[in-house]
Amino acid sequence: DSGVTQTPKHLITATGQRVTLRCSPRSGDLSVYWYQQSLDQGLQFLIQYYNGEERAKGNILERFSAQQFPDLHSELNLSSLELGDSALYFCASSVPGQVETQYFGPGTRLLVL
Amino acid sequence: GIQVEQSPPDLILQEGANSTLRCNFSDSVNNLQWFHQNPWGQLINLFYIPSGTKQNGRLSATTVATERYSLLYISSSQTTDSGVYFCAVESKSGGGADGLTFGKGTHLIIQP
Predict the structure, then answer these.
(1) Chain A residue at shortest CA distance from B48
(2) Residue B67 burial by CB count (10 A; 0-12/13-18/19+): exposed, middle or buried?
(3) pLDDT tens across B7-66, in order?
(4) How far apart are the C-alpha atoms of A82 and A69, rounded to whole Å?
């Protein structure tokens, strides 16, 4: 158990819908990262937040957005869903202010029908 | 951006065998991690190893940063070692504000 929690574990929805994925980092970690794992693209970095502020952006679509709240949990919002958004979405967290190990949560498996 | 290549892409071994997985990267890194993704999809941290050598039980890893590669060694393989092994790096040029870039992984199958 990495200490990073993600909910829900599984999500099934329809094209055009909007969903929210939630992540709670390890206690004391200020950085949260979101990744997408799909068959086509492999594991891709989406976005990073540090203590509530966006810090880095990767291959995140405009239809996707994220935020980190004062209690440091983070949410990834996916809207106008397409079939190709079906993937495993991971959240990771790391020690504040250091380049160090990122600890990954169990992931949310999203299926868009 | 930084490129990460892993080899071999697939590996099938008998229980008890040893294996070496390789990760080549195209730029200087300040973070390199090895992960094992189990059949349930969970990503398990194996090593944080931007340079040097580490060992943990039957697993060990070596990163030669100057030559831009890392090796993961698995000895006396067990069926529970099956899964996909990923190497992931963070480029030094990102200033510590980038996410990890993952390789495509090595799919390892250990047969009893």
Answers:
(1) A101
(2) exposed
(3) 999 999 999 999 999 999 999 998 999 999 998 899 999 999 999 999 999 999 999 999
(4) 27
What is the distance between the alpha carbons of residues B91 and B26, in angstroms, rounded to a whole number?
9
Question: B5-15 burial, b for 16+ CB within 10 Å, e for fewer?
Answer: ebeeeebebee
Task: Give B93's pLDDT tier (boundaries 50, 70, 90).
Answer: confident
Q: Name which residue leads in pLDDT, B97 or A104.
A: A104
Contacts of B105 in chain A (CB under 8 A): 42
Count of residues in chain A:
113
pLDDT value at A100 more than 80: no
Say whether A83 sits in a helix, a strand or coil. Answer: helix
* Residue among B3, B57, B10 nearest B28 (CA): B3
Q: Which residues of B touch A55 (CB under 8 A)?
A: 97
